[in-house]
Design brief:
Elements: H1 6-29, H2 40-54, H3 69-107, E1 113-116, E2 121-124, H4 125-140, H5 143-157, H6 169-176, H7 179-208, H8 214-259
Antiparallel strand pairs: 1-2
Helix pairs in contact: 1-2, 1-3, 3-4, 3-7, 3-8, 5-8, 7-8
């Protein structure tokens, strides 16, 4: 008869519990797996299954009882790491959403919005379109597999309970949020500039010929021009998104290394 002691049970629980917390925090915070349309049962099963897959290769767990204050501190640390990684991917999606809002406002589609359960707010149509295209491109370029690889790598750089976290990463992550406006504006600038020139031309035309109504001519013209420019932009969208993915994933890796800086 095989006898299993309480210490062995605790060691097995420690081996799977804390990695699962970090993985589930990342899954819930990421825009891909964390969508409300994804069933919660799948999220939990995915996190637990991934923890079981990488647990045998993890460094030894700290000898801390699961039901203790030290265990709570370790769990909060794992939550912080997972949420921080998910926020990097959220910033990536926010970049294209911001670009969609810039273009929508210039095209006259500011009122063309609908409720999205992902964000809990009204989202403009072009923002939602760019978001879907970005997620599909992310999957096509195996970005989700790279994220899982980085997530498994974090257990080597930030072993569970074996290191402290450098708090300066929070400022770096906050500053990185400025990418939402810089990269988003960079994506939208060609279309916004062209539409701005069209609006200026219509304004001059209205001054030269007051009987020509800008409201009856300008809106169809800007909308049609915007659609044509969007069609022209699409072939180059893949290159922009590829660079954006590479930039965000490299930042995620650098952020994890910065978080491990205090631990040596």
């Amino acid at each position: 008869m095989i006898d299993i002691t309480s210490a062995q049970w605790q060691a097995w629980l420690q081996l799977f519990f804390w990695p699962t917390v970090r993985i589930l925090a990342f899954v819930m915070a990421s825009p891909l797996w964390g969508m409300p349309s994804v069933p919660r049962q799948f999220k939990v099963l995915f996190g637990v299954g991934l923890a079981f897959a990488i647990a045998p290769a993890l460094p030894p767990m700290p000898n801390v009882p699961l039901f203790s204050l030290a265990s709570v501190g370790i769990m909060l640390q794992q939550l912080l790491i997972g949420v921080a990684m998910g926020m990097v991917l959220r910033i990536m999606i926010a970049v294209v959403q911001t670009a969609g809002e810039f273009i929508s406002m210039q095209m006259g589609l500011g009122f063309a919005s609908f409720y999205t359960p992902d964000s809990g707010t009204n989202t403009m149509v072009l923002s939602r379109l760019f978001e879907m295209l970005t997620l599909l491109m992310f999957l096509a370029l195996n970005g989700h597999l790279i994220c899982i690889e980085i997530l498994a790598w974090t257990f080597e750089v930030l072993p569970i309970g074996a290191t402290s976290i450098d708090a300066s990463f929070a400022e770096t992550l906050a500053r990185w949020g400025g990418t939402i406006f810089t990269s988003g504006l960079l994506l939208a600038v060609p279309i916004v500039t062209a539409l701005l020139l069209i609006n200026l031309s219509l304004g001059i035309l209205n001054r030269a010929s007051p009987q020509l109504s800008v409201f009856s001519v300008g809106f169809p013209m800007t909308l049609t021009a915007g659609l044509v420019l969007m069609t022209t932009l699409m072939p180059d969208l893949g290159g922009f998104l590829s660079g954006l993915f590479d930039q965000q994933l490299r930042f995620m890796q650098g952020m994890i290394e910065q978080m491990a800086g205090a631990g040596g």
